[in-house]
Amino acid sequence: MDLGIAGRHAVVCGSSAGLGKSCALHLAQAGCSVVINGRDEAKLARTAEEMREETGAEITPIAGDVTQASVREELVGHAPVDILVNNAGGPPLADFRDLDGNAIRKGVEGNMITPIALIQLVIDGMAERGFGRIINITSSSVLMGIEKLDLSSGARAGLTGFLSGVSRQVASSGVTINNLLPGSFDTDRQDSIIAAAAERMGKSVEEIKAGRDAANPTGRIGYPGEFGAMCAFLASQYGGFIVGQNILMDGGATRMNF
User: Fold this and answer.
1) Per-residue pLDDT tens for 113-168?
2) Is 116 part of any domain?
3) Is residue 249 part of a domain?
4) How far is the CA of 47 from the CAs of 13, 16, 21, 37, 106, in angstroms?
5) In this structure, are 57 and 37 located in the same domain?
6) Is pTM beyond 0.85 here?
7) Are residues 67 and 80 in the same domain?
8) Residues 6+ apart with CB under 8 A from 84
9) Contact 152/141 with Cβ under 8 angstroms?
10) What are the backbone angles phi and psi of residue 193, rounded to the nearest 5°?
11) How far apart, in whole angstroms, are the C-alpha atoms of residue 221 and residue 214?
């Protein structure tokens, strides 16, 4: 399917690996030029080279922490931004009793304030040009809380609520804002969670993986390529009538009727 976004310019945060990388790759495959981002400069450079070789697209790596205003400005300063994918790792697992004010502020900064700041930088330009796609990678925990992810869930839920009204304000200008809510996907982050669980429970990594897969209605966790393809579709010419939605991708693990 031709997604109709060849020649568009995209910025994908947190894209040196995992779900962000898959989103960037699928946008590049659709013909976009893509700015990718991560804090590890060497890893980001390798990812950029891989994407160039695979897609032939223009890939610009910009290393840095997006919670810093200077990095955000550099990300969006390369060219007028048509597509913005907000993505950031959540705070580490923690009992809510152990979270002090600094930890809470850092979590909200990374998963709510920073995405909003990036949107503020690009949204008026998108509206003036009559096309824009903003996709925020949040979490299934926005819909159903997950133990010890309270800070991540709260900050991402705050972002969701904040942007719900904003998305309706800009829809008539050809700009859409939507959220992708991943459950468990086969990423490095998932591997680290499994390793920690295996050590904590005194089980093997294989046992933890088998139990995790069996608990999902699909009998497995997600593939990053599935997630990246959905991101590219939302960014496409076909995404213009999808506004302010939370699209859950978790294989049916979150058990809700609506």
Assistant:
1) 999 999 999 999 999 999 999 999 999 999 998 888 889 999 999 999 999 999 99
2) yes
3) no
4) 13, 6, 8, 10, 27
5) yes
6) yes
7) yes
8) 10, 11, 76, 118, 119, 122, 132, 133, 134, 135
9) yes
10) -65, -40
11) 9
Is there a contact between 137 and 76 (Cβ–Cβ < 8 Å)? no
Q: Mark whether 115 and 213 lie in a shared domain.
A: no
How many domains does the chain fold into?
2
Amino acid at 57: A
Query: For residue 256, is it within any domain?
Result: no
Q: Find the domain containing 143 and state its range.
A: 9-184+223-242
Helix, strand, coil abundance in the chain, percent, nearest 5: 50, 15, 35
For 136, phi and psi rounded to 5 degrees?
-105, 125
* C-alpha to C-alpha distance for 92 and 254, rounded to whole angstroms: 21
Note whether 97 and 208 are same-domain residues: no
Q: With H, G, I as helix, E, B as strand and everything else as coil, classify residue 63.
A: strand
Tell me whether residue 157 is in a domain.
yes
Tokens linked to 89: 């790792």
